[in-house]
Amino acid sequence: VQLVESGGGSVQSGDSLRLSCVASGRTISGITMAWFRQAPGKEREFVGASSGNTKYYQDSVKGRFTISRDNTKNTVFLQMNSLKPEDTAVYYCAADYDPQTGKYDYWGQGTQVTVSS
Predict the structure, then answer these.
(1) Is 104 exposed, middle or buried (0-12, 13-18, 19+ CB in 10 A)?
(2) Which residue from 19, 66, 99, 108 has the least number of CB within 10 angstroms?
(3) What angle do CA 104, 17, 107 make, to 5 degrees?
(4) Of 76, 78, 56, nearest to 65 (Cα)?
(5) pLDDT tier at 52, thresholds 50, 70, 90
(6) Cβ-contact 34, 106 below 8 angstroms
């Protein structure tokens, strides 16, 4: 599975962005899709995930970020509203969570999001 993210950019605090992750090589229908982010000098952290009809979010983005997916287009989205400078990071799409390893099998290259105050 290849994952390609897009939609990142430089915005002001309070603005919105929508990230897209297009998958190729297999259908994303029925598999868990997630977003992670890594800020400069920090570890990569979980942002949110979509698994079946359930969505999970990190506490700091709840109410501001929304994950959606279009299985017909093999695409998952991350709508980010009310962006804050602390949301600045490279955002990564991940696919196919393996409960045995606790890891995702596939990762995109990332897209940069920069939020200035």
Answers:
(1) buried
(2) 99
(3) 15
(4) 78
(5) confident
(6) no
In this structure, what are the phi and psi dihedrals at residue 24, rounded to the nearest 5 degrees? Answer: -140, 155
Residue 71 CA: distances (Å) to CA of 30, 43, 74: 9, 30, 5
Q: 3-state class of 65 per DSSP?
A: strand
Is residue 46 within 8 Å of 55, Cβ to Cβ? no
How do residues 8-47 score in pLDDT, each as one tens digit? 999 999 999 999 999 999 999 989 999 999 999 999 999 9
Q: How far apart are CA 27 and CA 71, in angstroms?
A: 7
β-pairing, 89-98 vs 33-38, is antiparallel
Listed residue (76, 26, 28, 74) closest to 48, CA to CA:
76
CA 91, CA 65: separation in Å to the nearest integer? 13
Q: Which two tokens stand for residue 71?
A: 């299985």
